[in-house]
Request: fold
Amino acid sequence: MKPVRSLPITEETPLSNPFWDYSRLKIDCEKVLTEAFQKEKFPVTIVRPSHTYDNTKIRIRRRYTTIDRMRKGKPVFIHGDGTSLWTLTHHKDFAKGFTG
Reply:
């Protein structure tokens, strides 16, 4: 449920956000994959990065990135009130970690 009721997020934290179709459908897919693993040993890895980006998806309305703003000492835009935990993962870093 969002917002998260307690931190840190653990394996016991509810996964689905009842207010967002994408979240509910993603969890449904994860359940199908998990059942396939349990019944048929179908290999599955489930990863939930907060935000995976590439050259086109980290921009905030213009051509700069959050990292670029930090390096230049400029203000960084934070979603919400700044109290939520949110990770940014570059697609190449994710791929290295995911595929080894």
Observations:
- The chain has a mean pLDDT of 79.
